[in-house]
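Hey, quick one: can you model this chain's 3D structure?
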Amino acid sequence: MSALTPPRDIAIVGAGIAGIACALSLSRELTPLVPDLQITIYERHDILSTSGGAINLTPVAQRHLAQLGVLDELDRMGSEGGADVEAIELFSMRSGRPIGSIDFVDQKGNGFGGYKGRRVMRIVLSMAMMAVIERTPNVEVVFGKKVLGGEEINEKAVLHFSDGTEVISDLVVGCDGVHSAVRTRWVDPDSVSQYTGMSFLQATIPTKSLSSKIHFRSSALNVSRHGSLLTSFIDSDHEQIFAAAIVQFDEAELSNYRLDSGQDWASKDRIRRDLRNEMRERFAKSALPCIREMVDSKADWMLYPVYQVQPGSRWCMNRVILLGDAAHAMPPRDESAAYALDDAILFARILSRYYQEPLTEVFEAYERLRRETVESAFKESRRMWDRNRDMGFLESRLKEWMMPFQIRNRREKRESAWEFDATKVLLPTPTPSEDMVSLNSFLREEKV
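Sure thing. Here's the predicted structure for all 448 residues.
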């Protein structure tokens, strides 16, 4: 029996962090094995999406971006390539006092494995990743392709698009985010995204517009009984501050605060005023002058509801698999970007090792390696986000009192996590069977 043919035509749905990282990882791992490899990314928007705000890159995320050639592109962008973050400092908005910090450097001020943290606008990171894609000859990006569904026919995966076209591939990777069409219209239609009950209210504020002293070095999480407010520089010159409130928000009210391109001027103006008032009602009494000035400004706050995908949903079929938020969207936390990069690198490595095995074996090996990790992360993320819900005075004081202990107790675990490198994870070996293809692959691994 001849060996199975490895996938040569690979379709990736979604040109976000997970999708582009997946394309770069697959190209790096498979090109030596599959000379005629072709990877195509299909993105539903006509251009790169500018939605979303700043993203936190942990030492793990920076390490993986460096391995994919993206970090050099960010550095070439100068100040816009992001602000270095040695720690996220925590402050009480009730008292103005520091509570602790989540450190991205060790006690000597060194990064973990040479990498610290970085805060960068999501669109800037996307542009850096696209610059690397443009230098990768076997990867193409096609915009304006909205997925309607998919099916598996004759050992192939077929994607159907809203423009009436279809694409036939050997493998489809769904990286199209929390509201994934690949998941809801193909892999697991019952696994719909769910509103978490929490939202981001975010804006970008020029540093020079503030007369108060900035109370943080590079990034801070300012906590209160009415939610938390992240404040962080997003450029190396510290000219811009990204502010994002993490707040409890009623799902029934979301539509009243949604800004759409087709709205008239009066509706947009009313929404902006209402969002400014929402910020003032929550944080105007902060003991931190810088915060009071931010929420009293005329910044254009935007509301971004946070959605999740419940653990236990299906990730794959025979020729299609979900990665990143499409598979396991969770409330954002420090490692959120890193999880998408981890997925991409680990899946590409497993596919490379199993490249003469059935895709079902590839998918099973990947799930065994990843599912427990991400589902554990989901539970921890939910616990963290529940602390940002509205609470009473005494409960809020208790939360503040407990936070320094929690931060110290988890320091060792966090610092160990910052050393993670997906390129060094020990991978499972293809399981031998009576099937000659699997047997040949097993013998090949034994010789190595």
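One thing worth noting: The two ends are 22 Å apart (CA to CA).
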